[in-house]
Write a structure and sequence with these properties.
CATH topology: Growth Hormone, Chain: A
Number of domains: 1
Order of helices and strands: HHHHHHHHHHHHHHHHH
Strand content: under 5%
CATH superfamily: MFS general substrate transporter like domains
CATH class: Mainly Alpha
CATH architecture: Up-down Bundle
Distance between the termini: 28 Å
Largest sheet: none
């Protein structure tokens, strides 16, 4: 029979581990947070550039929808290969390369003159960014055991919501104050000023990050060994499954569908929130940017609140189901309340809370199923397949808005996708309970 450690010894070990992981978090999280913040800014700025770019270039809503979605064709095609390449080349070099490439291409958006150029650059930006998010999620598994990883993932992913808060006022300010500066319209300055930080951070990433705990010179040898021990304890619950079995695993495919539903809702905000606010009667780009921060602030608060409590849950499935239903209700009610901006913002915030609150909790599921290269492939596959709606959704929304002149039907579509997520999660939760 095993003898348990004395309580005072266990407490000392726990305190030491807490201090160690506070040190690791202080080293990694702020930098990764800023990198992901810049990634999201580069994704979201096209939604604000649209406010003036379409008129300047003579593009229709359908052209914008196709261009916004073309990003995801490149992203999906190169997501899994990029994440496997990260395993080969290491996080510092590969994540740095990703940031430099997408930053340069984002700046190149200022040369858009025709729909073909717009589609091509959006596709290439998707290729460039592929692998960044799942790469970081996998990178965190090298440092943090599952019990600590949810909160770390949530802090990292809160950059999405913070980007939503930042990009609105900043983009609105650039559009209004930089218009015709140096002979360039405001939307071109938007791509220049919001793309350049990615290039600079990419260079810093190459020299700032370590490939893993084993190469971290800022850790003592005993600290590196302790991290390896704690991370290894997650191994028995997961599997080093063959890559081929991961790519055809039924639960991975179901999780991809759920993540795709999240993506449809999330990119509804990214690409269309400024348009929704504009539909409620707001004309000023700066005011649209300021108002757009409200749902994103609610999303950030929800993510952090749930992350601090979810570690106590053995099964996160029921929580994810509730969050999906909350988002569905928010989206379904939004088109009914556009006559009143405060009420519309309330329901948009409700939809945002359900969507954003789900994201960090969701990644507990695949990281508990696989480790090693299998984990990298599973995360990348879910991220890749889950982003397919990122192309379909903008194209569909652009077509519907061009035909009907209304944004009501797309919001009902977003509600339906979150309802579908709740249904799929309920089946996954029941299957897990029977295992």
């Amino acid at each position: 029979m095993e003898r348990s450690l004395p309580l005072d010894t266990s407490a000392r070990i726990a305190d030491t581990d807490d201090a160690l992981y506070s040190k690791v978090a202080r080293r990694l999280l702020p930098f990764l947070f800023v990198c992901y913040l810049i990634a999201q800014v580069d994704r979201m700025n096209v939604g604000f550039a649209k406010l003036t770019m379409l008129k300047d270039l003579g593009f229709s809503e359908l052209v914008y929808g196709i261009g916004a979605g073309t990003f995801f064709i490149g992203y999906v095609l190169f997501e899994v290969p990029s994440n496997i390449a990260l395993r080969k080349f290491g996080a510092p070099m590969w994540l740095g390369r990703i940031m430099i490439t997408w930053g340069v291409l984002s700046i190149a958006m200022l040369f858009v003159r025709t729909p073909t150029t717009f589609y091509t650059l959006r596709f290439l930006i998707g290729v460039a960014e592929a692998g960044f998010f799942p790469g970081v999620i996998f990178y965190l598994t090298l440092w943090f055991p599952a019990a600590r990883r949810t909160r770390m993932t949530a802090i990292f992913m809160t950059a999405i919501a913070v980007a939503g808060v930042v990009v609105g006022p900043v983009s609105g300010l650039i559009l209004e104050t930089m218009h015709d500066f140096g002979g360039l319209p405001g939307w071109q300055w938007l791509f220049i000023l919001e793309g350049a930080p990615a290039v600079l951070l990419g260079i810093v990433t190459i020299f700032r990050l370590d490939t893993g705990p084993q190469t971290a010179k800022w850790l003592a040898p005993a600290e590196r060994e302790r991290i390896a021990t704690l991370v290894a304890k997650d191994g028995p619950a997961a599997t080093h499954a063959p890559l081929s079995s991961v790519l055809t695993n039924g639960r991975v495919l179901a999780l991809s569908l759920v993540y795709g539903c999240y993506g449809t809702s999330f990119f509804g905000f990214v690409f269309w929130l400024p348009t929704i606010i504009q539909s409620a009667g707001i004309a000023s780009p700066l005011m649209i940017g300021i108002l757009s921060t409200i749902p994103w602030l609610v999303g950030a608060a929800t993510m952090l609140t749930l992350a601090s409590r979810v570690s106590a849950l053995r099964n996160v499935g029921p929580l994810l189901i509730v969050l999906a239903l909350v988002s569905a209700v928010g989206w379904a009610a939004s088109p009914l309340t556009l006559f009143s901006l405060p009420v519309a913002m309330l329901f948009c915030s409700l939809a945002m809370a359900g969507t954003m609150g789900s994201l960090p909790v969701f990644w507990n599921l695949p990281t508990a199923m696989f480790t090693g290269t299998a984990a990298a492939a599973a995360i990348a596959l879910i991220s890749a397949l889950g982003n397919i709606p990122g192309f379909i959704s903008p194209y569909l929304v652009g077509w519907i808005k061009t035909v009907t002149g209304s944004f009501d039907i797309p919001m009902y579509v977003f509600a339906g996708t979150m309802l579908l997520a709740a249904v799929v999660l309920s089946f996954l939760t029941r299957a897990s309970d029977h295992d």
